[in-house]
Amino acid sequence: MNDSKGLEQKAQQVNQVPQHPSNKKMSMGTKALIGMGALTLGVYTISKKMWKLVYPPTFKKYLAIATIGLMTYSATHCNSVTVGAARIYNEKVRPVISLTVHQQKKIRSLEERLKHSKKELEEKEKHILDLSKELNELKELRKKPAEKNELRISRSLGNKSVSRGASLLEIRAGLGEERSVTTNPNNNSVRRYATRLSSQNSHHDVPFSVLEVYSRGGYENIIYVNKLENTLSLFEVSNKGVRKVKTYPCSTGINPAPKTRKGDHATPEGIYAPTYRNFSPNLPDLYGAGVIGINYPNSYDKKLGRTGQGIVLCGADYPDRIRAVNKGVPYTNGGIVMRNYDLRELDARISQQWYNTVFVIENPRRPVAKQLFEVKGR
Predict the structure, then answer these.
(1) Environment class of residue 179 by beta-carbon count within 10 Å: exposed (0-12), middle (13-18) or buried (19+)?
(2) Under 8 Å CB-to-CB from 213, ≥6 apart: which residues?
(3) pLDDT at residue 211 above 70?
(4) DSSP 271-306
(5) What is the pLDDT of residue 294?
(6) Looking at the predicted structure, is the pLDDT value of residue 129 above 60?
(7) Three-class DSSP category at 50
(8) How many angstroms separate the CA atoms of 255 and 334, rounded?
(9) 52 phi, psi to nearest 5 deg
């Protein structure tokens, strides 16, 4: 029995785990002594450093008393001091730290949004640059030579008005034949008279068609539109003859052929009279500063079966039209366009004599002097 009890006691001793000294709980007094020692050491170190400073003796005395009192209070109230410090940290210090961290996160998010906005702005700027390049390309396409526009429009007209195998040269040839059929019976006498008149005239740059109109008489102003050069010249008629007053740049129809039907984008060629004048400030922007109506189709055009209407001389407000006038290139749908200040100057020179004015519109390669002199609608 004794042997069995001894074996059980040895087994229990083996099974027992030795406790580490650190696992034992410290008493409140031990904690207070440790805290008081640490606080005393800290206060002593600070006081020793501060004692070396030059302060009044009274201040040093009170400082020593305050230090001893603080040390004594901390030693006797260790738990309350710890709890108070924790409360101060939780109520005062920690919110400030958390607020600072939150503000830093907010600043970082704002910085990220700013970077994203900058990237979007760069992408939009690139898109705007691409659009501007496309716009410049479109402008360059609109500035193609007049020959390409003539070929393109003449082909589209040829598919509708003549057979599919007709070309631009055939169209011009047909127009030339029409003009040759309807020549003036007294053409030779008129030509001789005009030649003699031009030799007597002091200005040798007067077109033959203008001289023919002058020889017929009855007009004080002749407006000559040169479709080949896209210019408009004002000629003044007097007892001394006919003289050129001034030449202005203009823009005519994008189709250089003579106008034969509605929608062919061509300026008519012939002798026409003004039908109305309107320089009201309430005009649409399409007409610029003013508009002068032209009596197309006249009786001669109607005999040839030509159609269309609304041909006018007007100003220019749109930038593309102004550029076309300045460069002297055809650009309109059939009308004649001038710069606004040129149109006002022309109207001021003619004054109230529009009823006594005639238009001569031609391409010098196809002179209208052969045309029957019929101006209706005066």
Answers:
(1) middle
(2) 219, 222, 271, 358, 360, 373
(3) yes
(4) EE-EEEEE--TTS-GGGTT-EEEE--S-HHHHHTT-
(5) 95
(6) yes
(7) helix
(8) 8
(9) -75, -20
Asked if residue 205 has pLDDT above 90, the reply is no
CA gap 193, 329 in Å, rounded? 34
d(CA 72, CA 78): 10
Over the stretch 36-94, which tens digit does the pLDDT of each residue have? 677 777 766 776 666 665 556 676 677 777 777 777 776 666 666 666 666 777 777 77
Q: Other C-beta atoms within 10 Å of 301: how many?
A: 22
Could you read off the pLDDT of 269-282 as tens digits, one per residue?
999 999 999 999 99
C-alpha of 24 from chain center: 84
- What are the residues whose beta carbons fall under 8 Å from the beta carbon of 271, sequence distance 6 or more? 209, 213, 298, 300, 358, 359, 360, 361, 368, 371, 373, 374, 375
Q: Which amino acid, residue 115? A: K
CA distance 209 to 371: 10
pLDDT > 60? residue 168: no
Judged by phi (left if over 0) then psi (alpha if -120 to 50, else beta), residue 305 lies in left
Amino acid making up residue 15: N
Domains annotated for the chain, with CATH where assigned, are 32-96 (no CATH), 154-370 (2.40.440.10)
Q: What is the spatial distance between Cα 119 and Cα 126, in angstroms, rounded to a whole number?
A: 11
- How far is Cα 312 from Cα 292, in angstroms, rounded to an integer? 6
Tell whether the torsion through CA atoms of 195, 197, 200 and 205 is positive or negative: negative
The pLDDT, as a whole number, for residue 54 is: 54
Cα–Cα dist 373/153, whole Å: 30
Question: Shortest CA distance to 314 belongs to which of 260, 349, 352, 274?
Answer: 274
| pTM, full prediction | 0.48
The most distant pair of C-alpha atoms in the chain lies apart, rounded to whole Å, by 170
319, 331 Cβ separation under 8 angstroms = no
Burial status of residue 361 (CB atoms within 10 A of its CB: 0-12, 13-18, 19 or more): buried
| CA 297 remoteness from chain centre | 40
End-to-end, the C-alpha distance of the chain in Å comes to 156
pLDDT of residue 377: 41
Distance CA 161, CA 52 (A): 117
Distance CA 234, CA 346 (A): 8
